[in-house]
Amino acid sequence: MTNLKTDIFFWNGHRMPLVGLGTWQAPDEEVKAAVQWALEAGYRHIDTAFNYQNEGAIGEVIDEWIKSGKVKREELFITTKLPLIGNSPDKVERFIKLSLESLKLDYVDLYLIHFPVGFLPGKDDTDLFPRDEEGKAKIDMATDIIALWKAMEAQVDAGRAKSIGLSNFNSEQIERIVQASRIKPANLQVELHAYFQQKLLRAACANHDITVCAYGPLGSKGRIELNAKRGLPPPAIPGVLEDPVVLEIARKHSKTPAQILLRHLIQENVVVIPKSVTKTRIQENFGVFDFILSDSEISMLDSLDKNDRTFDFKFLAEATESPEFPFHIPF
C-alpha cells in the first residue's frame, strides 16, 4: 500500500510529520541511542523540551547526521518547549536561545509554551519546578499568557522558530490567544489516546485551523510507576494497549496494539509522538504507513473514549490555584 499521508500542514504552509519520537523521561545516553535508531528507521520528527534536560544529547546526534550528510536540516522537524520558569515575556528569547544552543540548531520547526502556568525563578535554570522553604511550588500567579504569546511571536520574526504553538492549554485559553494574536498557534500538544480522545478540544482547534499533536498516544503505559513515584494509587482503568477491541483489530491486521492505536490517531489527522528507548519499539511505532483502518474499525476505536486523563499536573498542587491552571474546565 503506497501514498498514505505521512505529514500534515500548518495554516502557514509548514509541514509536520505525523509520527515523531517523544523523548520525555529519557536520560542522555538512552536518548542518544533512541534518536539514532529513530533516524535510521525513517523518523524525521523529534520532540523534546527544555524541561526534559536532554536537548544537548539530542543535538549531538542531529549534528552528526547533518554534518555527515545523512540528512539535510530542512528534512528534519524539531520541536522544543519553553519551560515553566520561562513563562514570562522577558525570558522567552533567552530560553529559546539556550535550547537552540543545546540542539546545535539555528532554528526549531516548532516552539511551544509547555504549560500555561508559570513558576517564579529558582536558584538557576536547572531548578525547573522551584519550591520555597516550606516545599511549596513557587507559582507565578500573575502569568500573562497573552503577553507571553507576543514574545513567542517575536521568535518567529527573529527566525528562531518556524512555527509556534501551545501545550496543555484549554479551549478558553486558546480562544483568548487566537483573538489577541498576530501569528496564531500552529499546533496544540496535549495528552490524547483512545481512552482520552479530547474530541471537543480537537474541534475547538479545528475551528481555528490549529493542528493537534498527541503525547502519551499509547495511553496509561508507565502510569503505575508514575503514580507510585508520586505517592498516588494505581490507575483504576487498565491500559488501552490491553483493550479487547484494540487486541482484536490488531489480530485482524497482523499488527501490534500500539500500531493500531497510533494508526487510529494519524488517520484522524492527529500527530503522534510515542516515547520509546527500545530499538524494536521505535521501529514498530513507525510501521503505521502500510495499512488502513476501516471506517467501522475507526468507529469502534472512537467508542473507547473514557475521558481518562493521566497527566493532570496535580503533583504541582499549588499550580491548581493559578487562574491559568488549564484543567478546571472540561476541555
From TrEMBL:
The record marks 81 as: Lowers pKa of active site Tyr. Residues 20-305 form the NADP-dependent oxidoreductase domain. This is Alcohol dehydrogenase A. The keyword NADP applies. GO terms for molecular function: oxidoreductase activity. Keywords: NADP, Oxidoreductase. InterPro entries: AKR (IPR020471), Aldo/ket_reductase_CS (IPR018170), NAD(P)_OxRdtase_dom_sf (IPR036812), NADP_OxRdtase_dom (IPR023210). Substrate binds at residue 114.
